[in-house]
Amino acid sequence: MSPEVTAFFDDATNTISYIVRDTAGRTCAIIDSVLDFDYASGRTDTRSADQIIKFVRDEGLEVAWLLETHVHADHLSAAPYLQEALGGQIGIGDNIRVVQDTFGKVFNEGTEFQRDGSQFDRLFHEGDSFHIGQLRGDVLHTPGHTPACMTYVIGDAAFVGDTLFMPDFGTARCDFPGGSSEMLYQSIQKILALPEETRIFVGHDYKAPGRDVYAWETTVGEQKARNVHVGDATPCEDFVKMRDARDAELAMPKLIVPSLQVNMRAGHMPPEDEQGNLFLKVPVNKL
After folding, report:
1. How many other C-beta atoms are found inside a 10 Å radius of the C-beta of residue 170?
2. Once rounded to an integer, what is the mean pLDDT over residues 92-99?
3. For residue 156, what are the CA distances in angstroms to 3, 29, 204?
4. What is the pTM of this model?
5. In this predicted structure, what is the pLDDT of residue 175?
6. What is the per-residue pLDDT across 24-43, written as a single tens digit (0 to 9) for each?
7. Alpha-carbon distance 116 to 118, whole Å?
8. In angstroms, rounded to a whole number, what is the distance separating the alpha carbons of residues 82 and 66?
């Protein structure tokens, strides 16, 4: 089956969120939503999420799932805000527990922060399936960028998060805690083993050199033939050498500090203090 996919591009974080719809009905899923955040002022905004809400309501859709491909380090998730407005279950890979344990320590969250993934409604394992109306979704565990990265294969469409980018841009970084370039290579091979006509929807786009427009849809066949990092059957050792050298020169994402604290909580802010105020921590020399 071929789902109808509607993309929403966020200019501030170069993130693409998706609404995936069962064309035989009105059920849909929302993948990798964005809560707008201005780091300088510490203010949140819901304009990106409100666009999704408007689309869902205008189309008369029913939300079954709010899916996260991983714990994003470059934007905050709007999943709880969307869930309150539209319903649906929040899902992520079961290795969220590894991420929570790692960053719970980085941010000194203490014992009150649950590291069991209980903030999410569903923790997916490799081989799990779910349904969006009559559409079946299958879950691939594709770690490397982070330990909890998942690819959701829904009909003839695969939502790969940050594992793969457009063929002319390459692949995700692997230098975050728990990341691994060798593991990423193996995860990419799993994706590239899907049928060549499978549509791939990426989580970000930054316009590769020489390309003037943003893009987010490609195919397995195009990735196998043209991806500048793994195309044309690039050997694992060559990829690992390239990826590790490239990652050593990359700066941290500008929203990594607030994003991790919020996203490891399924998009919820840390607990309020006695006066009802919210605070985010900035770890020094930890990232």
Report:
1. 18
2. 98
3. 7, 15, 20
4. 0.97
5. 96
6. 999 999 999 999 999 999 99
7. 5
8. 8
Q: How far is CA 8 from the centre of its chain?
A: 14
Residue 18: both structure tokens together? 């998706």
Q: Which tokens go with 228?
A: 């500048």
Q: Spell out a b/e string for 200-214, using b for 16 or more CB atoms within 10 Å of the CB, else e.
A: bbbbbbeeeeeeeee
Q: What would the two tokens of residue 170 be?
A: 């390459």
pLDDT tens track for 123-169: 999 999 999 999 999 999 999 999 999 999 999 999 999 999 999 99
Measured between its terminal Cα atoms, the distance across the chain in Å is: 42
